[in-house]
Structure formats: C-alpha cells, structure tokens
Amino acid sequence: MQARRIFSMALAALTLAVSGVAFAQAVRTPAESVEYRHQQFRRIGATFKMLNEGVRGGSPDLAALRTNAQTLNQLAQDLPNWFPAGSGAESGVRTRATAEIWSNSAAFADQAAQFRTATQALAAADDVRVIGGQLRAVGARCASCHQAFRAQE
Amino acid sequence: VAATRVWDFPVRLVHWLIIPLIAFSWWTAEEGPGLPAAMKASLEASSEFGFIPWMEWHRWSGFAILGLILFRILWGFLGSETARFSRFVRGPAAVAAYVGKLFSKSSDVVVGHNPLGGWSVLALVLLIAAQTALGLFAVDVDGLESGPLAVFVSFDQGRVAAALHEIVFNLLLAFIALHVLAILFYAVFKRDNLIGPMITGKRTLREGAAPPAMAPIALALLCAALAAGFVYAVLKAFWLH
Description:
The complex is a heterodimer of chains A (153) and B (241).
Chain A: H1 2-18, H2 21-27, H3 30-56, H4 62-78, H5 100-103, H6 105-124, H7 128-149
Chain B: E1 4-5, H1 9-29, H2 37-45, H3 54-78, H4 85-88, H5 92-100, H6 115-137, H7 155-188, H8 195-200, E2 202-203, H9 217-238
Antiparallel strand pairs in B: 1-2
C-alpha cells in the first residue's frame, strides 16, 4: 500500500511536470492537446467510477478510497492546464470543448476553481460516509461545468 | 362464430408494459426532450444539487424491462402454446411457404405468431434482452453514472458497453419500426386487425381450428416471481445499499 501511494504520488508529480501550460502551448499541436485532454478526462472518469463503487460496496476500503480521492484532486488541480489556447474546435480537431472556454475564460476559471474546492474537500475526508456525500458534490461540479462548457453530442 | 382466446394475459401485459418503459428509457437517456421548461425548472429545484436524476430513472426503467423480458423468456419455454418459442420459431421451409402467400388477400388466419412474424418477435426479445444486459455494465462518459454490474468491468470496457447500448438501441428501433409497419400492412392490405387481439386476447378463428392451450395463471405467477426475484437479487447484491 505504501509503495502504491508513493507510486501514485510520483505519477501525479510527473503528470504535473509534463502538463504545464507553457509546455502544452509551446510543444503540442492542437491534435495532441485534445488527445492529452481526453486522456486526462478519461482518467478522471475511471477514478470517479472507482470512488463510486468504493462507497457503494458492502465492505469499503478506506485506504483505496483515499488514494483515489487524492488522485482525483491532483487531476482537478491540473485541469486548467489541459485547455491551451487554440485547442478548441476551431483547430479542426474533433472536440466537444466549446469556444466559450476561451472567450469567457473568467467563467470557465470559476467553474474549474469550484471543482478544485470540491475535490480538495474530498481528498481531505477520511470517513466513507463523508467521502460518499462529497462525491456527489464533486459530481455536481462535473455536471455543472459540462452543461456550461461541453457541447451536446 | 365465437372469438377464441389466442394471447394469454401475461403475454399481453408484458407487451403493453414494455412499450411505455422503452419510451421512458429513451426519454430519460436523452434527458427529457420536450419537457416543458416550467416542469423542468421545478424538477431541478426539487433535485439534489439542481440536477434531475435522469440516469436514476433510466436505471429503474431498465430494471423493470429486465424483469419483464426475463419473464417473457421463461414464458417462452413454459407458457401458453402461442407464447412458446418452440411453437412460433419455425424453420426455413415454413417461413418460405408463408412468405409465398404473404401478398394474397385471402390467406388463413394464423393462430399465434405467423412463421415470419415469429422471427421478428424472437429478434425483438433478444434485442431487448441484449439491451438490458449491456445497460447493466455501461458507464457514462464522466464515470459519474453506471449500471449495477459495471463494478466488474474497467472504465474503458464500460464505455464500450455504453457504445454498444446505443447501437443495439438503434437496431431495436429498426425492428420496432418493422413490427409496426407489418401490423399496418396486415390492417390495410390484408384487412386483418392484429392490434385488437393483442388487447383483448381474442380472435375469431376459422371453423374447426383448434384453440391454443393456455398455461395456468399460477405458473405465470411463479415465472414472474422467478424473474423479479432474480432482478432483485442482482440489485440487492450489487446496487442497493
């Protein structure tokens, strides 16, 4: 468990290191930026799924829940870096990220900040019930931002 | 000539319950198209965090369909004569013979499913069963919502299940359209009303035709209990707290 935690923290640090705004803007093509963004959101989805199942199961594993909560929080802290300018649909790459993310960046930043606040509370929780409740609050932040800044399929 | 019972009550009940449930499942999956703005606002106001629990409703609708289709499959082996797969799923010769006289206006009244329609019914039953099974494993794009058995698959596998859930739904829609068009064809071209008997269960057969054997209602209750019990056991084990 200790090794796993160290590994997941190292992984998160690595993720942070390679996904800095400057790097993303300077090096990545729009297609690469979108691909990376999708990959990161899939990680959020996979992590959220594990958390959901963790609080639902008959004998919840608190340590695993906390590790996943921390992973989710780290991803949330990093999220603003996944939207470099020029990685919207205008680049010609298939993406549901709407133009308002960049044209109304203050509102987008506010959504991202609310998401971070919610995941921080999730990562700080050390009780299965609290994690379960906070998970719903985090999910509501996901849905709220997707309603505002993700195009319908 | 007196009308004869051709469709038993369980067959008709499953048929008419599954239609609104499929419609409701589609509607909740699409997050309520056509819902008046005022009603939507009041639903949002009464929902946790202001989000209408579409997927929660979708799941319950799916669980109900799962129970009905499991019952119908059991009933296809144990039920009344006209409900049984062994009776209405016919070989290629019977189908070919039926298709040969499909466009004659004076064909005999068939008791139960005709050889061509039998295959259509089997396709509908199998598609509905596949659709509910896929739904059990499906995961939404955000990992926020999932079927009760998604715990056994990865996020990516759950996304594949969700993609197949959408494809099978479109296939199901195509077969439903075919089913409705066929009934219209019988009503208009052959002047044969198939909807009435599916409501009343009764149809006027030609003189001397043997009435199909009806299974006892107690057996239907037993099958229903088995199907409902199975769905409940799955939910109890993997979903309900």
